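Ticket closed. Logging final result for Auxin efflux carrier component.
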Amino acid sequence: MIGWEDVYKVVAAMVPLYVALMLGYGSVKWWGIFNPEQCDAINRLVCYFTLPLFAVEFTSHIDPFEMNYRFVGADTISKLVIVVILAFWANCSSKGSYCWSITSFSLSTLNNTLVVGVPLLKAMYGQTGVDLVVQSSVLQGVIWMTFLLFVLEFRRSRVSISSATNDGEQEKDVEGNTDDAGVLCSRPSFWYLMKVVGMKLCMNPNIYACVIGLTWAFVANRWHFEMPTIMEGSILIMSKAGTGTAMFSMGTFMARQEKIIACGTSLTIFGMVLRFIVGPGAMAIGAIAMGLHADVLRIAIIQAALPQSITSFIFAKEYGIHAEVLSTAVIFGTIVSLPVLVAYYAILEFVR
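Final structure:
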């Protein structure tokens, strides 16, 4: 049975994150220390240095040969269930939307595994919680963020090529067809899309971080290598700032918004339902399918209910697709996540 001491450990792990968030908020909103250009510079520091090195640190210390493959399978099943449902809705429903399918996928599957997940699950379930949430982070960084980039690039390429075709221009990497939507239609070829997406991935250090960390983990555990002290120290000196600077940067972003709920009440509720109910619900389906039980089952569901991934908002802003919805999900979702996650923690103690 969960006790007040357990709840306190969770609160004690989360409150420092909110302190960093409020310091970032106050430095812009109340004290005027940073201007918008300086805030963007802080965000770039987080995106290109502290968070990637933070990811390298955690992924390089996992043992790929001891990964919980039932947990990995449950995580994969949960996301595939959501992908199938959204694809069916987008293609078969009169109200289906490709753009909203992408946004819904982000809202229901991509969570803040490292910044919030690591300290939270460590307080709840110790090292087991940390190990599993890092495994989830590796999958998210290597597979699902790549998938998100692909569909975003597909959408943008399709729109830009269609515009060029309408202006009388024809790309050499375009496959032409005629509709019944007798008008020449075009879509980018598969290899053209792969080239564009590959270039984007090469510019994303967070993808590199997961791949490098996972590669080192395989090599180190296969041949029993230890990371040289000088290398580990070089990573740690920046990665230790990962959690704090990420939350601080989120606070500066929050302070620059006219209002926290930027997309309106109805879309905010929609986003919160996807994040805190649909995502964990899909994970419960995957967990049951893979036969998870006890703490592993609880960790699987709780990590699926973590607040929204910051990276998903960055992508939404870059590709011009519902950025206000994702920003609200990141900011408002992080604020309300503490009571929601404590509630999940308490309720799941009754699940065996």
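The radius of gyration is 21 Å. No further action required.
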